[in-house]
Design a protein that fits this description.
The protein is of the alpha/beta class. It has helices at 15-26, 39-51, 66-80, 103-131, 142-146, 152-172, 190-193, 197-205, 215-226; strands at residues 6-9, 30-35, 55-60, 85-88, 134-139, 177-184, 237-240. It contains nine helices and seven strands. It has a seven-stranded parallel beta sheet with strand order 3-2-1-4-5-6-7, with helices on both faces. Strand 2 (30-35), helix 2 and strand 3 form a beta-alpha-beta unit.
């Protein structure tokens, strides 16, 4: 065991995940950044942050596979002896209208976005309960609060994280474990950059602050909830959406 906090960030090598990995590492934690397939992005991020004096490791795994989740957690425990913080950030989209969406499209998104959070939380839970300390932060979405055309699977998975977090928070609060959600709005990532210009204009018109969010603004909220001093906040949702849903 060490005084240094140890965090696992799923999908921690790109976009919002990379910003979360960076923020937690800069705060002094060792961060185990999970990735599914893009080893180059993961290695580049870890190399950059480690060169700057931070502590980051990378771990390949698919959060939709329970055995991968258990293996990654065990890798971190073997290397560091503890896991203090879990950020369930990994997520996918398969966007189609309800009429065109297949059963496979539904399950593909639910498996990663919702079941993946369960698998990872399950993998760290006994360890956190034994140590009577833990911070679990689930990255949801404004779409889980509002819904969106062509995203019934994504919206359901992200809304599901609210109930999951609140229920787990009630079960674990007396053991020093907090479970919260951060719900981003539209953030300037590669995924959002692919939105056609006309569609982007409509999105921006719905955001009172008049701009997209930045990944570091999501990371700041995660860093706040992950802090030792955030122990009286559990079962909560922090919305970071520029006022899109209020």
């Amino acid at each position: 065991m060490t005084d240094q906090r140890v965090a696992i960030v799923t999908g921690g090598a790109r976009g919002i995940g990379a910003a979360i990995t960076t923020a937690l590492a800069r705060s002094g934690a060792h961060v185990a950044a999970g990735y599914s397939s893009n080893s180059k992005a993961a290695e580049e991020l870890a190399g950059k942050l480690n060169a700057e004096g931070m502590s980051v490791s990378v771990h390949q795994g698919n959060v939709g596979v329970p055995e991968d989740c258990q293996r990654v957690v065990q890798e971190v425990l073997d290397a560091k002896g503890q896991v203090d913080i879990l950020v369930n950030n990994a997520g996918v989209t398969v966007d189609k209208t309800m009429r065109k969406m297949t059963i496979d499209d539904w399950h593909a998104v639910m498996r990663i976005n919702l079941s993946g959070a369960f698998y990872m939380a399950k993998a760290v839970l006994d360890h956190m309960l034994e140590r009577k300390y833990g911070r679990i932060i689930n990255i949801s979405s404004v779409i889980g609060q509002m819904g969106n055309i062509g995203q019934v699977n994504y919206a359901a998975s992200k809304a599901g994280l609210f109930g999951f977090s609140q229920s787990m928070a009630r079960e674990t609060a007396f053991k020093g474990i907090t479970v919260n959600c951060v719900a981003p709005g539209y953030i300037a990532t590669e995924m959002v950059a692919a939105v056609p210009e006309a569609a982007m204009e409509k999105i921006l018109a719905k955001i009172p602050v008049g701009r997209l969010g930045e990944a570091h603004e999501i990371a700041r909220a995660v860093q706040f909830l992950a802090d030792d001093d955030a122990g009286f906040i559990t079962g909560s949702v922090i919305s970071v959406n520029g006022g899109m849903d209020m």
